[in-house]
Structures are given as structure tokens and as C-alpha cells.
Amino acid sequence: MQTSALPQTPAELRSLIRRGDLVRPTAGMAPGYVQANLVILPKDLAFDFMLFCQRNPKPCPLLEVVEAGSPEPSQMALGADLRKDVGKYRIYENGTMIDEPEDISDIWKEDLVSFLIGCSFTFEAALLDADIPLRHIEQDSNVSMYITSIQTAPAGAFSGPMVVSMRPIKQDKVIKAVTVTTRYPSVHGAPVHIGNPSAIGIHDIATPDIGDPTDILDDEVPVFWACGVTPQAVAMNSKPSLMITHSPGHMFITDSPDEKYSVL
Amino acid sequence: MQTSALPQTPAELRSLIRRGDLVRPTAGMAPGYVQANLVILPKDLAFDFMLFCQRNPKPCPLLEVVEAGSPEPSQMALGADLRKDVGKYRIYENGTMIDEPEDISDIWKEDLVSFLIGCSFTFEAALLDADIPLRHIEQDSNVSMYITSIQTAPAGAFSGPMVVSMRPIKQDKVIKAVTVTTRYPSVHGAPVHIGNPSAIGIHDIATPDIGDPTDILDDEVPVFWACGVTPQAVAMNSKPSLMITHSPGHMFITDSPDEKYSVL
After folding, report:
1. ipTM for the complex?
2. What does the DSSP assignment read for B108-163?
3. Structure pTM?
4. Is B108 on the interface with A (CB under 8 A)?
5. CA A139 to CA B242: how far, in whole Å?
6. φ, ψ dihedrals at B257, nearest 5°
7. What do you get for the CA distance between the two ends of chain A, in Å?
8. Which CATH number fits domain A125-226: 2.60.40.10, 3.40.50.720, 3.30.2040.10, 3.40.1280.10?
9. Which chain A residue lies closest to B116 (C-alpha atoms)?
10. Distance from CA of A55 to the nearest CA of B (A)
11. Distance from CA of A47 to the nearest CA of B (A)
12. Is the Cβ of A236 closer than 8 Å to some Cβ of chain B?
């Protein structure tokens, strides 16, 4: 099924995902609605992680925090279930990914706090509206992500490198891509880097650490945005006893319109 | 001493305040540098309060969180001491203000977490630059603040009404005041209300709940911004065992330039 043939409302898409009928990267789905990264942690780690997000608003802009025991993000998706409504999850124990299930109901516990973090897929509709094409959407593939040499600001138990997503942008549209995404600080906002990948510790742009490779044409520049997969790199570095996340690209689709998060 | 005759650097002002030589509202001081509201809470309440801030970014935009036991906000004012560098503090026990000291060293404890919250004084320099005069600065008085009928989003132990600050703005400059302050979401950003005070539960505009009265001239409109004194109204409502704050108007003056917090 092409992305364009899918249902368009977040609730319909979540329902397909919950039934296990839509397990693939969500870029381009439900255009105009916020997609979110997911991090779930035991309550005794929740303060440190929220502090980590406060100190690192570019990679970890907090959209909603769901209190311990509740799987329902009532502000952004009333009736949704964070245990089932993401296509694929990742379970990290002591910094190692031990499983990648499609449902986490069986390991859910009452002390788990859920964090929804802004995702750059949200501003992609605005980029498309500004006539800036996005290759990973055209090719129905996952965006390219890289673990960089940029260090996050540590907080309590959490520290580690920043992850970025990369989109090739035509040279004459780079500035427009910056101004458009600047309007959305709560979904990563302006890029963190433009051009030379090695300046941020990326030594092989053709081989992303996460997601699919993306061709960069001669008249294009790689543009890098902070990425909500950062907590997963941080988990590998900081080794919390348990962290559950979405699998990169398989976002939680909310009912909140993108425009709600535009500052201008 | 007129505000204009005071030293201009944050560090010099904090030093005067620490010595007890400058105990008065800080509006207009150190123009171009961020001033902050202060909230100090025991660690067992810190997660709930940070969640409260995340859910109420207009009144409670978090600038920095200082981990338990440290009185030094190392990101925004290296070398400062949050126990001494605010002119006047308020101590709330179980929702009641029990003291208003100039120093809190004697009651400091190792489990206290400090929160610096954006203050509208920060965008006042930008308003003045835009040729929008501010009466409380001209008159060397404290800005007028009101407890409104707007309810904050509750989080754990915290709930209560939003506090706003009011500035009378000439009718033909109201729109400019909105656009200028929109650029600073982390110091309350755009107003929450323009005009009719009773629409937000303010029944006597001439008698602010907090701060000094401000005349409103015939060609002026009262414009209301969310205020970082909100946690104090929330403390009175939610009655945490202990909350220490600044005294309204007596802000913590940081070394961070305003422009760092402009989104455009």
C-alpha cells in the first residue's frame, strides 16, 4: 500500500497499527498531524530524563508526559494506547536492545512514565508546502539518521551523543528550509548543521547509523536536524535498567495539528 | 538610586543584592540580560513541578533546573548563589507564606531543587527598543500582577490559577507588542489576553493582587502576559510542604543575554 493510499486520519492509522496491519516507517502519513518519538522509563528515572529533555530541547523537545501507569496520552491522542499504537518498539535493558516487539502490553508496569518527544516528520508537511521535496517520502523509505560527535548536556543518569536526521536539500532551497523549520521549535526547529558531514563526526554519509541510505545529488546539500532518536543513543551510553522506545521511523501519530506547534 | 544610575552588569547587580544593598524590584535593571523567577522545592516534589511547567509553558517556561543540593545555576550564572542573590524571598509552608527573608542560607537543605523560570522583564528591553514605553519602568514601580480565572493544567500535586502581569499599551502599538513578545516564547511569549480584564476574572484592574497599581490612560489598552508568579498562586492552592520563591518583582538576574532566547 502506497502512503498516499492510506487512511488520512490519525485515529484510523493508529487503529491499523494497533491491529498489526501497518508496521512500517510513518513518514508522510497523516500529513498536518504531529508525530512523536516515544520514551518510556520507570518512575525513578523520570525526573532525570525530564531534566535531560529540558537541557537538550533541540533533540528532545517534550510534547507530553504521561504520568506513571497511564498508557493514554490524553492531551495529544485521547483514547490512544501507547502500549499498542506504535508499529514497532525497542526494549533496552542496561543499554542493550533486547527485543523489538509490535506490542508492549505484556511488559507494561504501573510505574512506567511515558514521554512524547517532537519529531521532524511534523515539519515535513510545511517543507513540502514550501515546495521543498523530501526524497525519503518520495521513495517510501526511512529517513537517514546518524550518531554524531555533538555531545548532549548530561542530566543525572543520562548522557551521550546527539542523533540527527538528514535530508538532502537543493542548494537554492537551503535557506528556505531553515526559515520554515525555525517556526517549529517543539519539533526540533532549525537545523543543527548544514553541509560537511565530517564536521559533526559523520564519516560515511552513505551509510546511516539508523534508517535507510539517501542519495545526495550534485546540486544538493545535506541538512541535519536534531533527532528524537537521541534518547536511544543515550540509553546505549547511559545504560538505564529499562528504557522502552519506538523503533526509529515508526512514530506515534497524534491528533494534534502541526499548526498548534508553530510559533509564527 | 535611580535604576539608570545602577551598575549595568548582572554580576555587579547580584553582588549588590548579595550584600543586601539593593532590595527592590529589578524591572529595568541590566537591560538585555534575562531575569528569572525562582522556585525551590524538595526533591520529592520536583518531578511533579517539572511536569507542571511542561504542561504550562506560558506561565512557567523552564530556563534552568539546578539539581538537588546545588545553589549554583551553572548554565545561566556561573558563580552565583541562589540562596543569597535574590533581593527578597518568600517561604511557603503548606500553602501559607510564613516569611519574606533576604537570604535563605540558614534554611537551605541538600534535597532542594531549584527552578529558574522565564520572566517577562526579559522582553521589556525588546518592547522599549520597539518604541513601546513601559509605565512601571518609567515610574520605578513594580509591574501590576493579577490572579486570574484562567486555570493551569494540573500535574501531580500542583494545580491552581494563572497569574498575569499587565502593561498598558497605546492602542496603535498593541499589535507590535504582540509580535515583539511572540519572539520570546521562553519568557512567556505572546500575551494571553488583550483588553477587557473581567474576561479573565479580574474585577478591579486598579487594585492588583500583587505588585503596584498602574494607571491606564484613555488611549491605552491593558495587555496581559502569563507570569512566573503563577507557582506562588499554585503553592497557595496546592499547599506543598515547602516552596521557596523570589518575592514578586525581585527577580534573579542571570548572565544570559535576552537574544539567546529569541526564536527569530
Report:
1. 0.81
2. --TTEEEEEEE-THHHHHHHHHTT---HHHHTT-PPEEEEEEEEPPPBTTB--EEE
3. 0.89
4. no
5. 56
6. -70, 140
7. 35
8. 3.30.2040.10
9. A54
10. 7
11. 5
12. no
Is A68 touching B (CB cutoff 8 A)? no
Nearest CA in chain A to B263: A182
Residues of A in contact with B55 (CB under 8 A): 65, 75
Beta carbons of B159 and B146 less than 8 angstroms apart: no
Which CATH architecture does the domain made up of B123-226 adopt?
A: 2-Layer Sandwich (3.30)
Reported CATH class of domain A3-120+238-261? alpha beta
d(CA B64, CA B74): 9
Q: Which residues of A touch B69 (CB under 8 A)?
A: none
Taking contacts as CB-CB distances below 8 angstroms, the residues of chain B near A189 are 263
Q: How far apart are CA A32 and CA B51, in angstroms?
A: 27
Q: Which CATH superfamily groups domain B3-120+235-261?
A: PSTPO5379-like (3.40.1640.10)
Cβ–Cβ of B264/A182 closer than 8 Å? yes
Torsion-angle region of B4 (φ positive above 0: left; ψ -120 to 50: alpha; else: beta):
alpha
pLDDT in tens, chain A (264 residues): 566 678 889 999 999 999 999 999 998 899 889 999 999 999 999 999 999 999 999 999 999 999 999 999 999 999 999 999 999 999 999 999 999 999 999 999 999 999 999 999 888 988 999 999 999 999 989 999 999 999 999 999 999 999 999 999 999 999 999 999 999 988 999 999 999 999 999 999 999 999 999 999 999 999 999 999 999 999 999 999 999 999 999 999 999 998 888 877
Which chain A positions have a beta carbon within 8 Å of B46's beta carbon? Answer: 47
Beta carbons of A236 and A91 less than 8 angstroms apart: no
Domain boundaries, chain A: 3-120+238-261, 125-226
